[in-house]
Design brief:
Layout lengths: L40 H13 L13 H12 L2 H4 L5 H28 L4 H6 L3 H9 L6 E3 L2 H12 L8 H24 L11 H18 L1 H5 L10 H10 L7 H23 L5 H21 L29 H32 L5 H16 L7 E3 H9 L6 H17 L8 H12 L5 H10 L1 H16 L2 H21 L3 E6 L6 E3 L12 E6 L8 H21 L7 E5 L8 H16 L3 E5 L3 H9 L2 H5 L4 E2 L2 H15 L1
Parallel strand pairs: 5-6, 6-7, 7-8
Antiparallel strand pairs: 1-2, 3-4, 3-5
């Protein structure tokens, strides 16, 4: 058989035993397929526009409300804090306080490490966990998401920035470009939310995200080998071959055994604490406080032993004080404007995808809804404001959000508590991090990114959809063997390729009658289903557009040719009717109608009648407007396949 093989919708073997006689009726009752009432062009356009951009009917709460109430509802839609804040109480604050303190103990050491991952001074990681969470707490709709820098976005933005500017030779320009990218990341996110274009992030499939995140996690872990092993000269590339070459080339003279002892010991401690937290859910606080405890112990150890004099690299100076204004540092003109825009769009989309996925996950667990477009506006606003207050791209952190969820948070106040703790750290505690070894930061980051390598999800993807698995592995290998941006490009490319393949090559199936019923189903899925002599029933499982109309026509003709060969081989009545089951065909365009016209003419030359069953309202309307219904004959369009077969039965009986 020519054409693409379908694992589900395949052909069945035709034999005399597998042929069913049609139900004989002298006067079959036929239901007419109704044409929907005609709508004017404006109403039709407004309906399509609403379903595309306002399918959730966001203005439904404003109906039949007074002007003052509408103003309050409008304020609440932009700032949800005014909605849930009215019902806030001491019990909720108690849960939020515990959650906020817990995630603060986790975020402080992570923020310092993630800033270094983005090739920024550690203080910018802390800045990014102070202002953005406060903005999100006022504007975000998720109760559980914890805001701040994350590993994947830090790696991505660091990689893209370093491709433009060397942070060692031009630190000021590098910092300015980072703020510019953050500004445009926020603008991108807020614009998508305001224009209600959130569906665009869905083009990055789950499989591609799993592969991208897994590859990014391995890349991040490999990048931490510099701090983990105490290597001073390390490659600037991120691919696995360059990193491993750099690691092993410095094995004899570049590794520091004191650094390895610190990093390995505390990594084991962190992994053990995580294992305990997974085994006993009530001890969730142990893996949450373990990173901060590791920082305190390792910093004290380095200070009393002066291990920094023996080659152990430390954080050194960390500025005290609040976020300074950075509005004047953002590039609004010049060569770096477009570069910042490009980096901002890419990092903003990845950050958005991660945050919305995290928010939806925890919202489903607690059985409440989040508005994806509002989330985008909130995330965009916090990054725009963050770019003006010395922050780089922040988003939702899965590890911190999971801890926030398990600690019993009730509202976004937990983010405010975390911000207050970070504020106190910036004001009073930053000098204490001077002797914090880079080794412990490397261990903390490695421990944090391990859960991003979701092997079980990859195995499940392989079992469910092999093409999805190709997308997953393409993104994964693209990240670890080439670069983060190439891996992301592969992920997006394969996701689009899959969509195009499904649109241009829709599934088709031959239908047979389930014994004892008037139901017709795919003969491959239901082997007991029998075909009617002289009738070929085919289902098209997609809308028929210009991109697939020729394929659909050719595929139906190939089905017919194959069936005629089988019929001739077993001396059964020839095919006289081709019935197309059109209930899955949600829409059809002019190319699709032309394809049906060509098919009709081709079948007429072979003395075969084309029959349609159950076209939907949009399809039947277009068939009438195009006059194809007149060409085919209104008596050749039926409500069900069973009625179509019954209508063909007397003609078949007469010839037999």
């Amino acid at each position: 058989m020519s054409g693409r093989a379908h694992p589900v919708d395949g052909e069945g073997e035709l034999s005399p035993a597998g042929v069913s006689s049609p139900r004989q009726t002298n006067t079959p009752f036929v239901h007419k397929v109704e044409v929907p009432p005609k709508q004017n062009l404006f109403n039709e356009f407004m309906y399509t526009f609403k379903e595309t951009f306002f399918h959730d009917d966001p203005l439904r709460h404003f109906k039949d409300q007074s002007m003052s109430m509408k103003l309050m509802l409008g304020l609440q839609s932009v700032f949800p804090v005014f909605e849930w804040g009215r019902h806030y109480n001491l019990k909720k604050f108690r849960g939020d306080l515990i959650s906020g303190l817990t995630i603060a103990s986790l975020c402080i050491p992570q923020d310092i490490g993630y800033a270094k991952l983005a090739s920024l001074d550690p203080k910018y990681g802390l800045y990014s966990s102070f202002v953005p969470p406060l903005v999100y707490a006022c504007m975000g709709s998720s109760r559980d998401i914890a805001i701040g820098p994350v590993a994947v976005v830090s790696l991505l933005i660091g990689t893209l920035l370093r491709a433009e500017i060397d942070p060692n030779t031009n630190p000021n320009e590098y910092l300015r470009l980072a703020f510019t990218a953050t500004f445009f990341a926020g603008v991108t996110q807020a614009t998508l939310g305001c224009l209600r274009l959130g569906f665009l992030i869905d083009f990055l499939s789950h499989a591609a995200v799993v592969g991208f995140m897994g590859g990014a996690a391995i890349t991040i872990a490999l990048q931490q080998l510099k701090g983990f092993l105490g290597i001073k000269k390390f490659t600037k590339k991120t691919d696995i071959i360059a990193v491993l070459r750099s690691v092993f080339s410095s094995a004899h003279h570049g590794w520091n055994w004191q650094t390895i002892l610190i990093s390995a010991s505390f990594l084991i401690f962190l992994l053990l604490s995580k294992f305990i937290g997974k085994k006993k859910k009530k001890l969730f606080w142990i893996p949450a406080v373990a990173p901060l405890l590791s920082v305190i112990i390792s910093t004290f150890f380095v200070y009393i032993t002066r291990a920094d004099k023996k080659g152990v690299q430390i954080v050194k100076h960390l500025d005290k004080g609040l976020n300074p204004s950075s509005l004047s540092l953002i590039y609004f003109s010049g060569d770096y404007l477009l570069k910042g825009f490009r980096i901002g769009v890419v990092s903003g989309m990845v950050a958005l995808t991660e945050a919305v996925a995290i928010g939806r996950t925890f919202a489903a667990m607690k059985d409440y809804q989040i508005d994806g477009n509002k989330e985008m506006v909130a995330l965009g606003a916090m990054n725009v404001i963050g770019s003006m207050t010395s922050c780089y791209v922040a988003t939702g952190s899965f590890s911190r959000s999971a801890v926030n969820f398990m600690a019993g948070c009730h509202t976004a106040v937990s983010n405010i508590i975390m911000s207050v703790v970070v504020l106190l750290t910036l004001l009073f505690l930053t000098p204490l991090f001077k002797y914090t070894p880079n080794a412990i930061l490397a261990a903390i980051i490695i421990n944090a990114v391990i859960p991003l390598i979701d092997v079980n999800a990859a195995v499940l993807i392989f079992k469910i959809d092999k093409l999805d698995f190709v997308a997953c592995m393409g993104a994964f290998f693209g990240v670890i063997f080439v670069s983060v941006e190439i891996g992301l490009l592969i992920a997006v490319g394969i996701s689009f390729a899959k969509i195009l393949l499904q649109v241009t090559r829709p599934r088709t199936a031959i239908l047979g009658k389930i014994p004892g019923t008037s139901v017709y189903r795919n003969i491959h899925q239901y082997p007991e289903a029998t075909r009617i002599p002289g009738v070929l029933t085919i289902r098209v499982d997609s809308a028929i557009y210009f991109s697939n109309s020729n394929y659909v026509r050719e595929r139906i003709q190939r089905w017919l040719t194959d069936e005629e060969e089988k019929v001739n081989a077993v001396s059964l009545p020839r095919i006289q009717f081709v019935i197309i089951e059109m209930s899955p065909v949600t829409d059809i365009d002019t190319s699709g109608i032309h394809a049906l016209e060509d098919l009709y003419k081709s079948l007429q030359k072979r003395d075969i009648q084309l029959v349609l069953a159950n076209p939907g309202p949009v399809v039947i309307d277009k068939l009438h407007v195009s006059n194809f219904a007149d060409m085919l004959g209104h008596d050749k369009i039926f409500l069900t396949v069973a009625e179509a077969v019954d209508s063909c039965s007397p003609k078949l009986s007469d010839e037999v």
